[in-house]
Amino acid sequence: MKLNTAISRPEAGILAANKMLRNTYMLLSMTLLFSAMTAGAAMYLNLPHPGLILTLVGFYGLLFLTTKFRNSAIGLVCVFALTGFMGLTLGPILSMYVKAFSNGHELIMMALGGTGAIFLGLSAYALTTRKDFSFIGGFLMVGILVAFLAGIGAIAFAIPALSLAVSAMFILLMSGMILFQTSAMVNGGETNYILATVNLYVSIYNLFLSLLQMLGVFSGED
User: Radius of gyration over alpha carbons of the chain, in Å?
Assistant: First the structure.
């Protein structure tokens, strides 16, 4: 009887992890598609960017609601509201790149391809090795806070070099977040697929924007 219990517990853990991964990636796919649709709508309608303050208020407000209702169906509505809103903020940025660079569409596709390659590569590594990357959690939180404050400073004081450095930092930090979050799902550190979806979405969103900015600086053609 003890032997059967010892065997069933790891199996139950694996089944729970697989269900968690399946639900998360399914919801992530749908939110990314919805976000792309709202970004496309914002580009088509030529909507202006809401600005840094409104973007932060909207993001953190919707993030708070998503976290609060993470265990109910309302949480799913909040997830789509959050990712749809972020898509609306992304559309004007993409329009700016299309207008500012003759190869703007190519830059966007390159950033999209790079984001996809990084996400798939790191996710595959975390899933196949099943390593526990929880030890990098504290470093990532501190790094994101520093990069966020540096980004605000770069915008406030119009320092292009600092802005470029922040983009490079975010590429590394968001890559680490993908490893961290995927590892948490595999090893039972994260059991709520709504929160896991939001964390991965934010990582992908920031990774894409950072890659796009780097490409615009080094590969953009006027």
Answer: 19
